[in-house]
Amino acid sequence: MSSSNSNAHSAPTADNTAMPATEMPTDAAHATPPAFVHDTVLLEETVAAVLGKKSLPKTPDAVRSSGVFIDATFGRGGHSRLLLEHLADDALLIVFDKDPEAIAVAEALAAQDARVRIVHDSFASMNDSLKALGIEKVDGIMADLGVSSPQLDDGSRGFSFMRDGAVDMRMDTSRGEPISAWLERVDADTLADVLYEFGEERHSRRIARAIKAMDSYDSTLALAAVIKEAHPNWQKGKHPATQSFQALRIFINNELGDVDDFLVQSIGVLAEGGRLAVISFHSLEDRRIKQFLQRHSKGQYPEDQALPMPPVRPRYFNKPFRVAPSSSEVKGNPRARSAWLRGAMRTAVAYVPED
Ligand SMILES: C[S@@+](CC[C@H](N)C(=O)[O-])C[C@H]1O[C@@H](n2cnc3c(N)ncnc32)[C@H](O)[C@@H]1O
Fold first, then answer.
1. Annotated binding residue at 151?
2. 219 alpha carbon – ligand 1 mean position (Å)
3. Strand, coil or helix: what is 321?
4. 209-225 pLDDT, tens digit each
5. Which part of the chain has CATH 3.40.50.150?
6. pLDDT band for position 189 (50/70/90)?
7. CA 183, CA 173: separation in Å to the nearest integer?
8. Is 3.90.79.10 the CATH number for 173-252?
9. CA 155 to centroid of ligand 1, rounded, Å
10. Nearest Cα to Cα of residue 67 among 50, 54, 46
11. What are the backbone dihedrals phi and psi of residue 249, each rounded to the nearest 5 degrees, phi first?
12. Is the model's pLDDT at 17 over the cut of 60?
């Protein structure tokens, strides 16, 4: 889900990360009707990966897996529901989401399926949440990062620059403050830094000054119009507010910090042979996942490169992989265009936390 656009998947860049695709849709993708449609991206590929299979068996009943699994980003449960079809009656599926609306959907599923447990919190709370549930190790973890289609499609959540609503942008509306409260008090330099760091917006200073000159922050359309006016370099097929909205959303939800914490925690949480499978939708996230897997499966620590005698590093993962959506998936679901699935298998090496 999340993300946007048309035609084929973005080609990898030179460093093998995704092209600078954004979470926020283009005009075209955003112009789809506001029905809360949710097309789960890389559905079969992710579920197969988390089960350690090349592809899903055609007859799940014959070969259902036992064990404990995590869906770190339940959303509307697309990945969870397919995974449950392939899990045995004694398996457990722990689902996380920050969003109260996603949790309400998860509660309806849990009412029908006793294998489902729900955590209304960030996946960055994975260690503590599993402890609270009395679970030490799990056999698979999947995550489908970013915003969901329902979050984007509901203007009142504040994620959309094409639908009017409060300038909120929180995934968890039960905690914290909307981005509008932060915009009220932040100075233009700090705002520009956020637009640059989390949106890779080259015109961040100019846009930040324009935003700070606004009288109020109570309309996403008004905010988008000010950014559009301030942006000197419009690109065809891309709303000029795309990167700024992405930056504000990533910032207020601490998205990158949560991903970093979650990835590190996965090392301690996964049992030997357990699988990690993570879908990302923009290069800021994909780069982090790629570097995490390089570090822990190939022993490539950038800080070791200058050392005459690099230390021997533990290899917590092996068999790292990367999968893009098929062209037919991208054709049917433009939001899949910028998605990458990366993952690996946990080795037997005991986890020793880094300082
Ligand atoms: C891309 S959607 C997931 C869609 C899901 N795979 C499905 O098939 O319906 C991402 C979901 O992750 C949630 N989310 C994002 N960051 C999170 C975090 N740090 N912790 C928990 N949930 C998060 C969002 O609220 C959203 O519901």
1. yes
2. 24
3. strand
4. 999 999 999 999 999 99
5. 43-148+255-345
6. very high
7. 17
8. no
9. 18
10. 50
11. -65, -45
12. no
Residue 43's alpha-carbon distances to 36, 58, 105, 346, in angstroms, are 18, 15, 18, 22
Ligand 1 geometric centre to CA of 354 (Å): 28
Task: Give residues with Cβ within 8 angstroms of 143, minimum separation 6.
Answer: 71, 72, 73, 123, 262, 277, 278, 279
Select from 161, 144, 143 the least CA-distant residue to 152.
Answer: 161
pTM of the model: 0.90
Query: Average pLDDT of the chain?
Result: 89
Going by pLDDT thresholds of 50, 70 and 90, the confidence category of residue 186 is: very high
Protein residues with CB under 6 Å of any ligand 1 atom: 1-2, 38, 40, 73, 75-79, 96-99, 102, 122-124, 144, 146, 148, 171, 258
Give the nearest ligand 1 atom to 71 CA.
6
Domain with CATH 1.10.150.170 in the chain: 173-252
Q: Whose CA is nearest to atom 2 of ligand 1?
A: 148
Please choose from 46, 47, 98, 264 the residue to mutate so as to test ligand 1's pocket, defined by most ligand atoms within 8 A of CB: 98
Give 87's DSSP letter. B
* Residue carrying the six token digits 């699935």: 341
- For the stretch 77-116, pLDDT in tens is 999 999 999 999 999 999 999 999 999 999 999 999 999 9
The response to whether 79 counts as a known ligand-binding position is yes
- CATH fold, domain 43-148+255-345, is Rossmann fold (3.40.50)
How is the beta sheet containing 116-120 ordered, strand by strand? Answer: 116-120, 92-97, 68-71, 138-144, 270-280, 340-346, 317-323
Q: What whole-number distance in Å separates Cα of residue 66 and Cα of residue 84?
A: 10
DSSP string over 90-142? T-EEEEEES-HHHHHHHHHHHHH-TTEEEEES-GGGHHHHHHHTT---EEEEE
Write b or e for each residue in 297-327: b if 16 or more Cβ atoms lie within 10 A of its Cβ, otherwise e.
beeebeeeeeeeeeeeebebbeebebbbbee
Can you read off the two tokens belonging to residue 145? 């990062």
